[in-house]
Amino acid sequence: MVRALIVVDVQNDFCEGGSLAVAGGARVAADINELLRHWTAGGDGAPPYDVVVATKDHHVDPGEHWSAKPDHATSWPVHCKVGTEGAAFHHNLDPQPFAEVFFKGAHAAAYSGFEGTTASGTGLAQWLRARGVDEVDVCGIATDHCVRATALDGAREGFDTRVLTALCAGVAEETTSAALTEMAGAGVEIV
């Protein structure tokens, strides 16, 4: 079995101080960074990943996804605008271990990392399959939005999918609980 870690949207705008901040985002960034440090060091107890990738919200003009009066369900404040500090990975997270970054949502809403592509246009599922990946672990921000969508699509794409809840931050307790229930019902393992 070949396992990948998918780090979802650990960007400044989704962490404390950002335009769409999720409580615990900066902690999650630091905790993922610690896991990646152990992974790159190797040796006994190193996480069992063959490859690590990340996703990024990458908005140029996503239409109604941005709103001056967001409903926080289908429309949101301006966030992760290309070229801004808000779109960058959080400073607690060193992106060096990422074999690839998948950009999503340039001109439309995009929640799932599987909607993202590399700079050259390769989709996440295609990229993973080309490397023989059949198992994925998903972590990042936010449990009840982009982590949820990425994990559900991972399972739909045929990958054995797990969500690492200790390495995720959710927007709200109620929506996070509902997302975890939905993911488990779709065959995603909740760890």
From TrEMBL:
<protein>
    <recommendedName>
        <fullName>nicotinamidase</fullName>
        <ecNumber>3.5.1.19</ecNumber>
    </recommendedName>
</protein>
<keyword id="KW-0479">Metal-binding</keyword>
<comment type="pathway">
    <text>Cofactor biosynthesis; nicotinate biosynthesis; nicotinate from nicotinamide: step 1/1.</text>
</comment>
<keyword id="KW-0662">Pyridine nucleotide biosynthesis</keyword>
<comment type="similarity">
    <text>Belongs to the isochorismatase family.</text>
</comment>
<dbReference type="Pfam" id="PF00857">
    <property type="entry name" value="Isochorismatase"/>
</dbReference>
<dbReference type="InterPro" id="IPR052347">
    <property type="entry name" value="Isochorismatase_Nicotinamidase"/>
</dbReference>
<dbReference type="InterPro" id="IPR000868">
    <property type="entry name" value="Isochorismatase-like_dom"/>
</dbReference>
<feature type="domain" description="Isochorismatase-like">
    <location>
        <begin position="4"/>
        <end position="190"/>
    </location>
</feature>
<keyword id="KW-0378">Hydrolase</keyword>
<dbReference type="InterPro" id="IPR036380">
    <property type="entry name" value="Isochorismatase-like_sf"/>
</dbReference>
